[in-house]
Amino acid sequence: MTTQGKEIFVPSEEFMTSFTEQAITWVRQQRNQLRPNSKGLTQKEKRVFSRFFDQDLLDSARFAHVPVIKNPDFYKGFNSIPLLDLEQVVAFTFIDTVAEIRNSAIGTKFHELVHVEQFRQLGVERTVALYLKQWVNGDYDYWNIELEEDASGLVAWYHSNPQESFSVSEEVAKRLETYKLL
Ligand SMILES: [Zn+2]
């Protein structure tokens, strides 16, 4: 596989299994570290989001401010692939807890809450495994990860007509059905 003339490393099954296991552990650790210093949505935000998200998701989601989303330590063992540089992102979701480098705009919060819904429907292990599979299959390009496209697409739908209501849980379920799950 080549991209712009550069050899791209095709990982073995063992490589991906090990990478995925470490990523799952890291996601759980980050969630548990961030959770105690995180805040829930405001009543106003909950009112806006209640036309799109289930109430129990809105009640359980938390946001934690961090100076930077740090790349995981386990990356060191996997530098033969072009890793996602998380230090470039403004927010990242760990199960039901979102790390953000500043108080996010409503669209960013919406996007991250879609990821919370993906985690709810698939569970942490399958979400991380699917995310990484889509990332590798998409030539290690963040913009080719369908779980990201789904989140961004639903935000675009919301922005195109904020007065319209739709169910994120139904939309996420429809999209997940189309992927070849593990
Ligand atoms: Zn995202």
What does this structure look like?
It comes from Candidatus Curtissbacteria bacterium RIFCSPHIGHO2_02_FULL_40_16b. This is DUF4157 domain-containing protein. The chain is an alpha+beta fold and 182 residues long. The protein has one domain. Helix content is 51%, strand content 10%. The protein contains seven helices and six strands. The protein has helices spanning 13-34, 43-49, 55-60, 106-122, 124-137, 146-160, 168-178, and strands at 2-3, 6-7, 39-40, 62-65, 91-94, 97-100. The structure holds zinc ion. Zinc ion (ZN) binds at residues 111, 115, 148, 151.
SSE diagram, text form:
Blueprint: E1 2-3, E2 6-7, H1 13-34, E3 39-40, H2 43-49, H3 55-60, E4 62-65, E5 91-94, E6 97-100, H4 106-122, H5 124-137, H6 146-160, H7 168-178
CA radius of gyration is 17 Å
* Distance separating the two termini: 23 Å
* Element-by-element helix/strand order: EEHEHHEEEHHHH
E-strand count: 6
Outline: globular
Largest sheet: 4 strands, mixed
Q: How many individual helices?
A: 7
Percentage of residues assigned to helices: 40-55%
Q: Output the strand order for the largest sheet.
A: 3-4-6-5
The proportion of strand residues reads 5-15%
Main structural class: alpha+beta
List keywords for this structure.
7 helices, binds zinc ion, globular, two-stranded antiparallel sheet, single chain, 10% strand, 182 residues, alpha+beta
Concise overview:
This protein is α+β, with helices and mostly antiparallel strands and 182 residues long. The chain has one domain. The protein contains seven helices and six strands.
